[in-house]
Amino acid sequence: MQMPNAQQPNAGSNHPADRQSLPAHLLIIDDDVDGLHLIIDYLRDYDFAITTATDGADGLAQARKRRPDLILLDLSMPQPDGFEVLSRLKAAEITHATPVLLLTGRTSSADKVRGFELGAADYITKPVEEAELHARVTGQLRRARLQGALEKRLLAYQQRFGALPDTATETPCAEIPAKQVEQLYRVRQLLRERLTDPPSLNELAALAEPTSRGCHAAFAHSSEPPSSVSCAKRGCSAPAIF
């Protein structure tokens, strides 16, 4: 359902990662039409593209079709209610990473806890002021986009230097030269410090060598690079450095 006076989503790519230069796309799911109009009135001046749904089933369909950057979800709806919709969104591969903000008149601690346990990114109680709503929406959008940018850089790093081990079943490394330990430490620190401006592959290549793959985590939990690390001595199973 498209509401009047709301900017419509671009007809191009439906994948959030491909829409960085476009207005953020919001999906609002609420069976209260007056409430929908109020939220649109609050957000219309902030250059968002908005899609709406007035029941849970349509909301799920729109989420799969539109791939919004963020979802605002009411809890008090006919079946499926907001909790069920949230559970289905988080269970589906195509929508599980989409931040969902619960926007509801229900104020009990039990509802808040259940919402967060099901994967909600935030819980906003009605009535909400325009400034607060905008701040919470933009905060979650910024967080999601930074996370997406970091994941892209990490994937590119893995493709160039090899996958980072993520299990405790890897064969322990032999003695790791101090030079490689220091290189890997610098890579980790650079990625952490530049979340808003991820380094290029050339920058990462200048800090790390392909020969160090498989020994990334000898210093995963240390705050300073050691001069020499023995995985065998430390019981290292080469978990990820991030």
Would you write up a description of this structure?
The protein has helices at 33-43, 56-66, 82-91, 109-117, 130-161, 178-193, 201-207, 231-234; strands at residues 25-29, 49-53, 70-73, 100-104, 122-125, 175-176, 229-230. It has 8 helices and 7 strands, in the order βαβαβαβαβαβααβα. The strands form 2 sheets. It has a 5-stranded parallel sheet, with helices on both faces. Strands 6-7 form a two-stranded antiparallel ribbon. By secondary structure, it is an alpha/beta fold. α2 runs parallel beside α3 (82-91).
Draw up the topology in text.
Elements: E1 25-29, H1 33-43, E2 49-53, H2 56-66, E3 70-73, H3 82-91, E4 100-104, H4 109-117, E5 122-125, H5 130-161, E6 175-176, H6 178-193, H7 201-207, E7 229-230, H8 231-234
Q: The biggest beta sheet, please?
A: 5 strands, parallel
Mean pLDDT: 76
The structural class is: alpha/beta
General form: elongated
pLDDT < 50 stretches = 167-172, 210-242
> What is the CATH superfamily label of the largest domain?
Response regulator
CATH class descriptor of the largest domain: Alpha Beta
Name the helix and strand elements from N-terminus to C-terminus, one letter apiece: EHEHEHEHEHEHHEH
Tell me roughly what share of residues is in helical segments: 40-55%
Count of helical segments? 8
CATH topology of the largest domain: Rossmann fold
Strand content: 5-15%
Describe the strand arrangement of the main beta sheet, using strand numbers. Answer: 2-1-3-4-5
Radius of gyration: 22 Å
CATH architecture of the largest domain: 3-Layer(aba) Sandwich
Number of domains: 2
Distance between the termini: 42 Å
How many runs of DSSP E, i.e. beta strands?
7
